[in-house]
Amino acid sequence: MPIKTIIEPFRIKSVEPIRRTTRDERQQLLEAAGYNLFLMPADAILIDLLTDSGTCAMSTEQWAAMMSVQAIFGFKHVIPTHQGRAAERILFGVMCKKGDVVPNNTHFDTTRANCEFVGAEAVDLPIPEALEPARLHPFKGNMDTARLAELIERVGAKRVPLVMLTVTNNSGGGQPVSMANIRAVKEICARHGIPLYIDACRYAENAYFIKLREPGYAERTPREIAQEMFSHADGCTMSAKKDGMANIGGFLCTNDDAIAQQEKDLLILTEGFPTYGGLAGRDLDAIAVGLNEALEEDYLNYRIVSTAYLGNHIAREGVPIVQPPGGHAIYIDARAFLPQVLPAEFPGVALAGELYVEGGIRSVEIGTLMFGEHATMDLVRLAIPRRVYTQSHVDYVVEVILEVWRRREQIRGLELTYQAAFLRHFSARFRPLAPSAAPQPATHQG
Ligand code: F0G
Questions:
Q1: Pair (94, 162) in one structural domain
Q2: Are 323 and 423 found together in one domain?
């Protein structure tokens, strides 16, 4: 006879004791909670039937996600979010107000936009070498510490709620930041009582560059280096879509209890509860595994070498790129590639269009379109998805770029026909300029 008893298809390995309360206690607790059961502490509940949402038991694998973050990043509070920009919005929403100034080696687009959205000024302070694409420097992502100190003196520490370091520096060519620079920036921050936050999207690649290039780190593992990087910071924002190897997810970390509380309050408004931050359990799980896989040395070596392969093969033929090759991408210097196209005619957008026409390759402009008046270079970024393309795919990309390089003199600029009020690069529209025509002013809508 088939067995009829249905059993729970799991074993319980971790339990949360239920606290029993007396009727009198419950009467007092209810009064203390203002007769609102939402405000009742969880340990005062015997059976919780408030919601079925977010109350399922998480597996050991899911809890591993949160523990991975703590093990690598080491911050006291980990607040999951659906992606990096959500962490940024909450961070700036809590820490910044109108009139504040936020220094960064270079803000990425969403970071700058979220900072400006709350009325703060986003200031980029890369080292001078970073502004010359062809110039070699082992840590071109470093922040200019003299300018940081000068900025804080000038505007006053009260107006600088935090300093950020983006590792690696995405808008500046995927270039790493050295441990010495992280330490030096932290020292300046500490002197003024300003917290240091790391935009940690590509922390594993940055750690590996430190291992390869910074004296004293050759024998350390990428994990140990990452742990040291974060030990100098007071918090971080993270997009797990990069060195978290996941398709979605992010988090916000801080060591400050009061800030964490405010961030969690804001999180509940739009993202979800602090246990999941808008992510499904499977996403948390993927992030936990991904954070660890991204630190494997074999993988990092393949990653850095294969990115450089693309850069070196086009640079060898004369294509101007940001040197040395970055961790996650190769950046073509569009101003040098198309000297006949003025920055106001969007050389990066024009070149990206040509790469598409020639071989169906999609790249992205990082320059005048993305950053407007804040753009110091016009770059075309060829970002390499992690573990996706083979060497023959990359050889094809090399061939397409060289084909466009050969006919570069015929390429013309563009003029804007539509732009949005912020993050205009996502929705802008253009038309090609007639040969030798001067650029027309853009139509402002929105
Ligand atoms: N910070 C940096 C340095 C980034 O590169 C990104 C995203 C973010 C923050 C925002 O994270 O996308 O999860 O909201 N960069 C992607 C890119 C979009 O193509 O470089 P997100």
A1: yes
A2: yes
Q: What is the mean pLDDT of each run of 10 residues along the chain (446 residues)?
A: 81 75 95 89 86 62 74 94 96 97 96 96 97 97 98 98 97 96 98 98 97 98 98 97 93 96 94 87 87 94 95 98 96 98 96 95 94 92 92 94 98 94 89 70 48
What dihedral angle (degrees, nearest 10) is formed by the CA atoms of 221, 226, 228, 232? 170
Return the residue whose CA atom lies nearest to atom 12 of ligand 1: 84
Pair 182, 326 in one domain = no
User: Is the omega angle on the peptide bond into residue 254 within 30 degrees of 0, that is, cis?
Assistant: no
| Distance from C-alpha of 286 to C-alpha of 189, rounded to nearest angstrom | 34
Domain boundary among 239, 265, 293: 293
Instruction: Say if residue 153 is in the same domain as residue 102.
Output: yes
Q: What share of the chain is helix, strand, coil (3-state, %, to 5)?
A: 45, 15, 40
| Whether 303 and 365 share a structural domain | yes
201 lines ligand 1 (CB under 6 A): yes
Tell me how many domains the chain contains. Answer: 2
- 259 and 139: one domain? yes
Amino acid at 363: S
In the reported structure, the alpha carbon of residue 129 is separated from the centroid of ligand 1 by a whole-number distance in angstroms of 23
Q: Is the shortest distance between the CB of 108 and ligand 1 below 6 Å?
A: yes
Tokens found for residue 349:
């957008």
Is 437 inside any structural domain?
no
CA distance 435 to 412: 7
For residue 323, what is the DSSP state? S
**Calpha distance 144→201 (Å, rounded):** 21
Q: Which of 72, 70, 75 is nearest to 197 (CA)?
A: 75
Ligand 1 pocket residue status of 178, Cβ below 6 Å: no
Q: Is the CB of 175 under 6 A from ligand 1?
A: no
Q: Which of 347, 325, 326 is nearest to 338 (CA)?
A: 347
For residue 392, the enclosing domain spans: 23-45+297-430
- Residue 54 located in a structural domain: no
CB 194 within 8 A of CB 156: no
The CB of 83 under 6 Å from ligand 1? The reply is: yes
